[in-house]
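#onboarding

Welcome to the new folks! Below is a worked example of what a typical request in this channel looks like: someone posts a single protein sequence, and someone else replies with the predicted structure as tokens. Don't worry about understanding the tokens yet, we'll cover that in week two.

Example request:
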Amino acid sequence: MKYEEITSQATAEWADMTSGRVPLIRIGTAMCGHAAGAFRVVKALRKC
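Example response:
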């Protein structure tokens, strides 16, 4: 796959994820996210 094809596909997929009627919620779960309670947030959102 050429770079241009990868870029085009990634751009299309990003547009699909960010332009829908369902909100996209990104939660950082690196070590700093763990300390800040990221998994509690994930757990709470999964209950919705």
